[in-house]
Design brief:
The structure holds 3 protein chains of 3 kinds. By secondary structure, chain A is α+β, with helices and mostly antiparallel strands. Chain A contains 6 helices and 5 strands, in the order E-E-H-E-E-E-H-H-H-H-H. Chain A has 2 domains: 75 residues, Beta-grasp domain (Ubiquitin-like (UB roll), Roll); 70 residues, [2Fe-2S]-binding domain (DNA polymerase, domain 1, Orthogonal Bundle). Helix content of chain A is 37%, strand content 12%. In chain A, a hairpin with a 2-residue loop joins strand 1 and strand 2. Chain A is globular. Helices cover 29% and strands 24% of the residues of chain C. Chain C is built from 18 helices and 28 strands. A 7-stranded mixed sheet of chain C has the order 3-5-1-12-9-10-11. In chain C, strand 9 and strand 10 form a beta hairpin. The two termini of chain C are 47 Å apart. Classes of the chains: A alpha+beta, B alpha+beta, C alpha+beta. Chains in contact: A-B, A-C, B-C.
Chain lengths: 153, 323, 726
Amino acid sequence: MKLRINGTTFRVEAHPLERLLDVLRIQCKLTGTKEGCGEGECGACTVLLDGEPVNACLVPVAHAEGRSITTIEGLGGTEGSHPLQRSFVEQGAAQCGFCTPGMLISASVIPAGARREEIRCALAGNLCRCTGYSAVYRAVELARAKRARRRAR
Amino acid sequence: MKRFEFVEASSLAQAAKLAAQPNGAVRAGGIDLMDLQKEHLAEPDRVISIRRVPGAAEIREEGGALVIGPLVTLAQLASHPVALAKWKAVAVAAGEAASPQVRNQATVIGNLLQRPRCWYFRNELLQCARKGGPDCLSQEGENRYHAIFENKDCAIVHASNVSPAAMLFDGSVKTVKADGSRREIPLAKLFVKPEVDITKEHVLEAGEVVEALVLPAKAGGDHSSFLAAREKSAFDWPLFSLAVRLEMSGNVVKAAQIVFGAAAPTPLRREKAEAALVGKAIDEATARAAAALCFEDATPMTQNGYKVAMGTALTARAILAAV
Amino acid sequence: MPPRPRRPRPLSVVGTSPPRLEGAAKVAGTARYVDDLEFPGLLLGRTIRSTVPRGELLGWSMGRRPRGLHVVSAADIPGRNAIALLEPDQPCLVRREIRHAAEPVLLLAHEDRDALASVAVELRERPRKAQLDVRASRSFCKEILIEKGNLSRGFARADRIVEGEYTTGHQEQLYVETQGVIAVPEKDGVTIYGSLQCPYYVQKALVELLSLPPERVRIIQVETGGGFGGKEEYPSMIAGHAALLALKSGRPVKLVYDRSEDMLATTKRHPSIVRHKTGVRRDGSLTAMQIDVLLDAGAYVTLSPVVLSRGVLHAAGPYRCEDVQILGRAAMTNTPPNGAFRGFGAPQTQFAVEVHMERIAEALGIDPLELRRRNALRPGDTTATGQRLGADCSALPCLESAVRRSRFVARRRAIEKHNAKARVSGGPLRGIGLALFFHGSGFTGAGEVKLASRAALELTPTGARILVASTEIGQGTRTILSQIVAEELGWPLSRIEVADPDTREVPDSGPTVASRTCMIVGEILRRCAQSLKRALGRMTPRQYLAKNGPLVVTEQYDRPKSMHWDDVHYRGDAYGAYGYGCDVIELEIDPVTAEVRPAEVTAVQDIGRAIHPVLAAGQIEGGTAQGIAFALAEEVVMRDGRMANAQLTNYAVPTPLDTPPMQVEILEFPYGHGPFGAKGVGEMPIDGPSPAVVNALRHAGLDIRDIPAVPERIAGLVDSMRGAAT
C-alpha cells in the first residue's frame, strides 16, 4: 500500500485496518505524531487528511490511502520553521510538548483573521494539560498577525 | 485487536452482500467500530469498507427532501448551507457532536447507529444485560448518566445527537439488504426498545446497509432547535438532549414536535406535550407547562433525579428557542 | 503599610524570556519521548493486575502461550519485593496478599503486540472484605499534631464559633503522555530510559528490588510529556517491572501504559475531609483555629506522610492566629494508593480554610474581603508552627493587587444587581469569588538538610555545562537553570549547556518536586557559578582548560543559618520561603443545565523573582486551569475500589472551551536565599482556584462544601434555590 505523507510517497506493509497512527510512527518512523489516549479524545495524534484534521488513532490506514496526509514533520520541517511553530516557542505554548504536534496541526488550518472564539472552537478537540490554553491562543493570534503583516508589506 | 479480512465494496449492494456473511461489519467513517474493537465489543472477521462507493459522500436535495449519503461526515452536514437554513436542528446537532477532528471523520449515519456509551456496556470485563448477562448493572450501580425514561430493563441513553433532530422531520433511512432488496424505514421504527430486544439498538438486519438518511422538508424547519447539556464543553456525550420544531401561524402554534435524545434507550417523542402546545401562543408559561408534561412519566433512578429538573428547564428553553 | 518590593539590581538574562531550550524540537516533533525510542530486539511488556480490592492470590493459570513469551512473577525478584520509598510496604508484584484492585501480579513480555495481547491469564483470587470508606478506617499511616498557643484560651476570647466540614475528591494528574519506560539489560546491570521526574528515586528503588549496587542501575530521564507529581513515585514501580522483564528475557523491554491502565493503576490526589472550628471576634479577628485533616492514603504508604505534612502546614491558610491546633491523619483504605499531585496536600487544606473563611464572614455579617484584610499574615507575624515571617511575606499586597486589578468590589456589586433580576427571570446567574493562599517552597522542615542535594557545573571550551538530576517535564527546568548560571557568570545564555539527567553523569540534586527546582537547586547552581567564576579569574574557559585540565565545580545545599525546625513537635521554620497568591474568579451558572462556566480569572502571585516571565506565567495559567477543573469537573468515580470512569471520555479534563481567559500578574518580593530572589512557582497556582470557584458559587447563592461540584450535584441546589426565590 502506498501513502502520500508530507508530499513524499511511503510504501508500507499494513493490514488495512491498522491504525494510521501506528503506521506513521512504527513503519514510517514519523514519531512526531503522539498517542495520548487511543480513543480520539485528546487530539495528540491529529494529522491532516486532505487538509482536514482527523485523529490518526481512529483512522484505519486503508482510509488514508490515496489521500494527502500531513503530519507535524510536514508542517515546518525538522527546524520547525512554520510561523505557528515559532510563535508557539515564543509564547510558551509548548510546555511538556506532548500535545504540541497535534495542537499545531489543528491550529494550522485556522483561517487568518479568526477571532478568539473561533480559535477556541477549532482547537476544541486538542487537550493540553500544561498551559491552560491561554499561551496557545496567544501563539495562534501572534502567528496570524505576523502573517497578515508580512502580506501587507 | 483481532485480525480480520478487509474488503472494499464498489457499491452498497455489494457491501450488503459481503456483510451478510457471518461476522461481517460495514464501516464508513469507522469511529465507533474502531472504539468497539478496542474494547473487544465487536470482533468481526471481515470488515467491508464503503469509502469507494460513488456518490456516497454527497448531500443532495431531492424533491424537497434532504438526502444524506452514508459517507457524509458530521462536519459536512454541520456546515451545509441548505441544511442550516431548512433543517436547522439537524445541522446544529451534527455540529455539536464530539470534536472537530471526529466530526471530520465520523459519518452522520454512523452517528445514528452508534452503540451506547453506558460504562457498564463499554467495559469489556463486565457482562451487562445488553451483552447477554443477567442484569442491567446500572440499576444498582452508578447511574448518574443513565436513562430517566423506559429504563427498567436497560438504562442506556440513546447516544446520537442527530437522530432526535432528524425525527423532527419524520426522517427515514433507505437501506439495501444482502439479497439486493431495498426498503425505507422511518426513524420512528428504526430504533429498538430494550423491552423488544435488549441486545440491539436498531432493526437493521445482518448485512443491511444504509444508503441514505432522508429528511423531508417541514414547515418550521428553520425554527427548529437542538439543545444539550454536557459536563464539559467539547467532546462529551450529552447528559440530556432534545430537539424541538414548531410550525407557527402568526404567534400561535399550528403543529409541534418534541423529541428527546439522551433521556431514554431510544429517541422519545413527547406527543402529549406536543398536543398541548397546539393552538397556543408561546410564552414562558406555556413552554414550562408543556415541559412539565414531558416529564410526567419519568422514572429517575437512584442517582439521576437531577436530570428531571435539568431536562424540564432545558425543554422549556428549547421550546422558547424554536419560536 | 506593606513593604514595597525591593528594587532588584539590573540583570541581563534573568527576567527575560528567551525561547525554551528544547522548544524548537518540541514544535518540530523531533523531541524524543520514551515511546519514540528504538532498541534492537525490543520486547513489549504487559501487566496482569488484581481484580479484587482486597484478598489473597491463590494462583494463576494461563491459556495458550505464544512462542517467545516471557513471564515474571514475584518469585523472580532477585532483591526485596518492595518499592523503596518511605516505607517498604508496597510490593513490586503481589505474592499473596492483595490490598487494592489493579495491583500488579504478573508481567508478560513478547515482541509482537497482538501476540502479547492475546495471552489469556486467569487469576485465582479469594476476596476479603475491603475497607473503602476512609471515615471508617482506623488504620493510620501518619498522624501529625501542630499546636500553637492555647486553644481553649482562644475559644474563650471568641464572640462566635463557626464550624464547617469540607471535602475534596481524587484528581488524576492526566499528563498527556502516559507513564512509560524502557529497560535495557546491560552486562552487569540495567539501564532505564523513562518518562519520570526523579531519576534517583528510581535508582534507589531498583537497587533494592534487583539487589544491585547503585552504579549498575543507570537511570536516564528522556523527554517527559508532563508529570504534575504523577511521575514522582510511580515510575519506580513501572521501571521495576520493565527491569525484571529485561533481566529475565535478556532483551530490552518497553512498558508504556495505555490511558485506561494509567488511570486505573497509578496514583492520584488524596481525597480529603477537613473540619474547621474557629473562634472569631465580632470585628472579624481570628482567636482560635481548630482544624482536623483526614486524607485517604489508599492501600500503601507511598508518599502519604509527606503529603499530609504539607497539608497540615498549609491548613490554617495565610492567616494570623495565636491559638491554633491542627491534627492531621492519613488513613489506609483498599483503593489504589494516592500520591503526589501538584500542590501535595496544600490544595485540599487551603480549599477548606478559604471556603470556611467565607462562611465565617457570612456568620458575622461582615465583608469577606475585610475579614481577609484583617487576618492576612504580615511580615513579623508567625505561622501555625511559630515560623516568623520576613519582609517577603506578601499576602496583603497580593490581596490588594488582585482586588484592584479585577475591580472586585465594583464587579461584585454589579453581579448582585444582575442576580436579583436573574432570580426572577430564570436567566443565568453569576458569582464572583476570591481566595488568598500561600505555598511553601522546597522540602518541609529538615527535609532539604536530609536531602543534602548536590549540583555541579562543568567547564566546557565555550562555556559551562549544568549537571543536575532535576528534570525538565514541561515546566522549564533546563531554561531557567541555564539563565541563573548565565546571569551569575555574566555570560550569554548560548554558552550554557545542560546535561541529560542520567545517574551516571549527574549528581543527585534531589527530586523534581515540591516547587524546589528553581529556589533550591537554582541557588546551589548559582553558587557553583560563583565558584566557577572565582576559579576562572581572568582566563577564558579555553585558556583555563589548556592550562589546568578539566574543571567540575560541585556545591551542596546550604541551610540558611537562621532556619530551625523541630520535626518531633512540628515547630519552627517549616519552609525556607513562602510564595503568596490571590485568585479572583467570576462564574456564570446556567440555572437550567446547571453548567458552570468560568468567565474570567485574575491570578496574582508573588514568586520572589520571575527568572523567565513567560514560563512563570505558563505555570500560573496551567495550574489555575487544573485548579478550576479540580473544583468543577474532574471526578474520579470509585466503584468497588476501582476507578469506574478510567477513560478520557468519562473523566472530564478541561478542553479549550472550558478554560476561561486569565489575567496573570506576577509580584516579586524577593527571598534572600533564592537565586536572584526567586521562590517556587510550580505548585502554588493550583491552591487558589478551587476555593475561589466555590466562593463564587456561594456568591451566586449555592452552598457547596464538597468538590468536585459537577453539574449533577449543582442541579439539585439550583432547583431548591429557584424554589426559594419564587
